[in-house]
Amino acid sequence: xxxxxxxxRLDLRQLHLDVVRGTSGGKIIWQPRIGCWLTDKRFAxxxxxxxxxxxxxxxxxxxxxxxxxxxxxxxxxxxxxxxxVIRNERQLSETDTEITIHTPVGKQASIYRITSSSPHRIxxxxxxxxxxxxxxxxxxxxxxxWMWDQTRYEALCAEWGNLGAPTxxxxxxxxxxxxxxxxxxxxATYALVDxxxxxxxxxxxxxxxxxxxxxxxxxxxxxxxxxxxxxxGGTLPPDLYQRYVLPSYLxxxxxxxAGGKFVHSHWDGDxxxxxxxxxxxxxxxxxxxxxxxxxxxxxxxxxxxxxxxxFLIDGLPAILFDTLYPVSMLEEFTYRLIELFAPxxxxxxxxxxxxxxxxxxxxxxxxxxxxxxxxxxxxxx
Length: 381
Fold this sequence. Notes:
By secondary structure, the protein is an alpha/beta fold.
């Protein structure tokens, strides 16, 4: 018998907003991400288990009685290039495509390759591999603007309904932009040493472009803002975080808080060396910190770092959804997470359920969350 506080009975958009605003009466929300599980199966041509095969993605979430983290709303924010930027695309082979960006100050070229192992193209050549190309990227950042797409927003609201609050993620911050978007870790590491003035100017231009984006964000109805940076201690040691990321995070957070936004960042991989920055970076929450046995931190270490001030977003190691681990271990982990972090907890999977995970285990966690939320309702009456 379902209860009024169960996810199946709630307006999950409102619950999500109540949780981040601190007005949920202690209740938490269950927000597992299933993108990897779904995309990998679709790419491999593997039918989804019944009854999910013929469902839309929102329909799957409804069937599982849980909330998505709806980053699709990122499409509502569009970067507008200077009118003098010209983009040319040329097919080099059956698998390779070259994209050239022409500007008044030079050009950038990148090569993308289709592979048989992923639905996503890999980059054979990154768009920044020389100091000259970085100067072109700097010019583009300086001359870019941002706009809000109300039509897209309304379409997404109609598609996702009340399953969760509209959410967006900002472009990656300075070092992470180089690592993931434009250079790759190795070349970016050399660039930080070999071209310090150009790198510094590029980072300043990114900050200014992102400040223009924040003005658009603050004028929008979207309240939940993510820094989609994928921070990993193995590539971002504390000295680089403190020198580059921390100042930008503090500026971003101050600007977004002035607009009444909830601000969180995506930290995955190994995060133990970065945890000392959790409470001093201006963040309301941190997404995807992965505890042992998958990550490099214990729940107790995460709690000590976040304290009672910073939300934990996610927290359940993805591997616990594979049948290699007993369901009882997932249950015990879920109870412990709630005990340590509720109500500053948006429970999810760090990072996503894998393509080999058992999707029905999402219901196990959902039942525990519904029981906890029902107890909050009773204690608050």
